[in-house]
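Dear Dr. H.,

I hope your travels went smoothly. While you were away I took the liberty of generating a structure for the chain from your last submission, since the lab meeting agenda had it listed for discussion. I wanted you to have the full record in hand beforehand rather than looking at slides cold. The sequence, exactly as received, is reproduced here:
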Amino acid sequence: MIDSARARAARPPLARFEPVDRAATVDGFEQALLGWQFEEALRSVPARQREVLVEVAVRGRPVTEVARQLGVPPGTVHSRIFYGLRALRVVLEEMGWVDDR
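The corresponding predicted structure, in token form, is as follows:
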């Protein structure tokens, strides 16, 4: 016990993290948790659908640009978005998310 007290005294104290606004910290933590859960749910969506969901919904790219990049018609991108969102909704509901519409 004496040795650990001496060791602590010999080292400079660690900086303490004290958030200014506890509500903002909780909100930030909750946002991070929701983001993690959403990423986990998105991984469960089939790859082709996940790819267009990320490009269009997350990155905000136009459907025509994504279709050109993938070499498919825009209608195919639209259908992949539709079925991807449907699959994502099922996964999120299984994880306990509730549709508050």
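Two observations you may find useful: Residues 6 and 91 are 54 Å apart (CA to CA). The first helix runs from residue 2 to 10.

With kind regards,
E. W.
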